[in-house]
Write a structure and sequence with these properties.
heterodimer; A: 312 residues; alpha/beta; four-stranded parallel beta sheet; 11 helices; 11 strands; 44% helix; 13% strand; B: 366 residues; three-stranded parallel beta sheet; 17 helices; 58% helix
């Protein structure tokens, strides 16, 4: 059975664990993460939704046309904190568009509500998802397909890239949503640009969430806690890279129109202004623009600032 | 202590009444203007939603006018409104303002109560026994005024669409709201409210059949006319009755969780969104969709969907509403509100929308 799971979701926390747990229950699954064909143009997708959501809807529609079924978890909360509302509506938006475009009926989407805080939840969720996949395709269809476009890019395990003995003082830290950091289509190729400039880029997703959450907790105030997981991740990462281990600079990647990051940017910029010895910090808003030169210019300028800052 | 609060439709009348009846000094923010909006824009970023920008501008103008204590409405996740107070406090402090802050919890839970206790610690020491003793009456007065304001607004929305001179309705409504605002006793309030309602009922009508639309969307943009380009009044002048479920009182009822009937009604309403949304996306998203579906069932002529640019729940609703419009053939007008000087273009847009609804009613468009 070929099960589609959009590549953008693979970098979201707990998703590799879920995928692995489902694979253990249903070893016949061939995962398809990227469709060969072009994504159909969604008919019902408001123009001002963020670019990652647009991309995810497109990927899902393309996968629906090629896979036997699409596994699209409704990611509500992870580690006790919320994902943005777009993840709650994603399966319904995909189903609406699939129905209208004439792709397989909405029942070809297996959507489980994902609220995960530990391995026990993953196990239960995997069983529910496997049950849904079985019902979708029937027991006779759970055979191995050999022509699947399987994914080989597994996100690094937490802390893998940030070993304590690694010197990050000459690196540039990249903070932001995991799918933005992982997907070149969404981040304007900024990690590649840094590599091409001879700079080592480190990602906030290499740090365990528990560490970041602990740092972000300092700014919670009763009911006024940052309830979005990605916001806690980014704030925690900023605090980690300014207080615990300092890189040469920090770049915050933000999708245009991201409601969560819009508020978080204000908070982080305010904190950064008050830190006398913080490394240079820059926000880059990533959009679906195609011109690359201005991104290159901004990275070059930032690296100049970083070099001057290091001399000081 | 001089308290201030943001503008939200006629909510200022409720807040003023509370402060006056309890004997607490207050500063009413200047009416929302381009300057208000610019203050918010220059101090935030492009993806911050318009309500935050405007509320921030309201607070800055009130602080400049001498306020020292900000009272803000709270909310729960997953809407960003639940984090507004956290963010606005940071911005105001960075701008150099000195102020005290009190959030009225959007959801009453232990954390909110503890926060409220902490925030009111200093304020309580400044309140006299007389202030506190007058609070129950202040609450009653505020609530009654709010109910009159909402009743007059609803009555005016119907009267305007059928009036021979819709501007007359606007004038009566403005006078009525002013009279309600100025009333200092419950009897004076009832008299002022009744008089305005009678005047609205007595307005000369035309024979023209009114169209009926429902206005759905994000709470702030639905309720604040200076933000939604006064869409309710403009459509009324074109012979359209605009109905909406978002009123300040309905959100208080829902947030307090005391009125079980309101909660049951909302739950039942959410079921209407089921064919399109199988999970609560958050804020008013599912309600917007549900109200549109109900509007179709009840024979309304159209749906107006207003929401601020970058609003996450409502951009989901907008995608779904486009499908609702296609499925049922009902005209849906999405208005994404941001900094835009639409001028007279909004009237042209609305005239075209009303024409479509009239033709559809006459059977010219299927």
């Amino acid at each position: 059975m070929r099960v589609g799971l959009p590549s953008e979701l693979l970098s979201v926390a707990w998703m590799p664990e879920l995928k692995e747990a489902i694979s253990r229950i249903m070893p016949g699954i061939v995962w398809v993460h990227a469709a060969q064909g072009k994504a159909p143009r969604p008919l019902f997708l408001e123009g001002d939704v963020c670019y990652p959501l647009k991309t995810m809807v497109g990927s899902c529609l393309a996968l629906l046309a090629e896979a036997d079924t699409l596994l699209l978890p409704r990611i509500v909360g992870l580690d006790g904190f919320l994902m943005c509302p777009n993840f709650r509506g994603l399966p319904d938006i995909v189903a609406l568009n699939a129905r209208t475009i004439g792709l397989p009926a909405a029942t070809a989407i297996v959507s489980v509500v994902m609220e995960v805080a530990d391995d026990r939840h993953i196990k239960i969720l995997a069983e529910t998802a496997a049950q849904g996949l079985r019902e979708q395709c029937g027991p006779g269809n759970t055979t191995v397909c050999s022509d699947g476009n399987t994914c080989t890019a597994t996100p690094p395990a937490a802390d893998a890239g940030m070993a304590r003995d690694r010197d990050i003082s000459r690196s540039i830290a990249l903070i932001g949503h995991p799918y933005l950091l992982a997907d070149g289509r969404l981040n304007n190729g900024i990690p590649d640009l840094l590599r091409a400039s001879g700079v080592d880029g480190i990602l906030c997703t290499d740090l365990p969430f528990a560490v970041l959450d602990l740092l972000a907790r300092e700014y919670d105030y009763y009911a006024k806690k940052l309830y979005f997981r990605s916001a806690r991740e980014a704030l925690g990462a900023f605090l980690y890279f300014t207080r615990v281990r300092q890189p040469a600079g920090i770049i915050h990647l933000v999708p245009f129109n991201c409601g969560v990051d819009a508020l978080l940017r204000i908070e982080i910029e305010s904190l950064h202004k008050k830190m006398p010895h913080a490394p240079p910090y820059m926000v880059i808003v990533c959009d679906e623009h195609t011109q690359h030169d201005h991104v290159v210019t901004r990275i070059e300028a930032f690296l100049d600032i970083v070099n001057e800052h290091r001399k000081i | 202590m001089k308290v201030t609060f943001p503008h939200l439709g006629s909510m200022y009348i409720f807040c003023k009444a509370m402060a006056e009846a309890a004997g607490i000094d207050y500063v009413l923010p200047s009416p929302t203007s381009n300057r208000t909006r610019e203050i918010g824009e220059y101090s935030t970023n492009e993806s911050v939603c318009l309500p935050l920008k405007i509320i921030l501008g309201n607070f800055v103008e009130a602080l400049e006018a001498g306020a020292d204590t900000i009272v803000m409405i709270g909310s729960g996740p997953p809407c960003r409104l639940g984090l507004y107070d956290r963010t606005i406090k940071i911005i105001l402090k960075d701008m150099g303002y000195d102020f005290r802050w009190l959030t009225i919890p959007g959801m009453f839970n232990w954390q909110a109560l503890l926060q409220n206790r902490e925030e009111t610690k200093a304020l309580r020491s400044e309140l006299t026994g007389a202030n506190i003793a007058r609070f129950p009456f202040a609450m009653l007065m505020g609530w009654k005024k709010m109910m009159w304001c909402e009743h007059l607004e609803k009555t005016a929305a119907v009267a305007r669409a059928t009036a021979a001179r819709p501007a007359e309705v606007d004038a009566i409504l403005a006078q009525g709201l002013h009279a309600v605002d100025e009333a200092h006793s419950l009897s004076a309030l009832s008299k002022a409210g009744r008089q305005a309602a009678e005047e609205l009922a007595a307005v000369r009508k035309t024979e023209r059949p009114a169209l009926k639309v429902v206005m759905v969307g994000e709470v702030y943009t639905v309720m604040e006319p200076s933000i939604n380009m006064d869409i309710e009044r403009r459509l009324g002048h074109l012979g359209v009755i605009v109905e909406r479920s978002s009123y300040f009182s309905s959100h208080i009822r829902r947030g307090s969780r005391l009125d079980r009937a309101t909660l049951r009604k909302r739950q039942k309403m959410l079921d209407h969104a089921r064919p399109y949304l199988n999970f609560d996306v958050g804020a008013e998203c599912n309600v917007s969709v549900a109200e549109a579906v109900v509007a179709v069932q009840q024979g309304y002529d159209g749906v107006v969907h207003v929401y601020p640019f970058s609003c996450m729940p409502e951009s989901n609703a907008a995608s779904v509403l486009a499908a609702v419009g296609t499925d049922f053939g009902i005209p849906i007008l999405p208005l994404v509100i941001d900094r835009q000087e639409m001028g007279l273009r909004i009237d042209t847009l609305l005239e075209a929308y009303v024409d479509i609804m009239r033709w559809r009613r006459q059977g010219h468009i299927l």
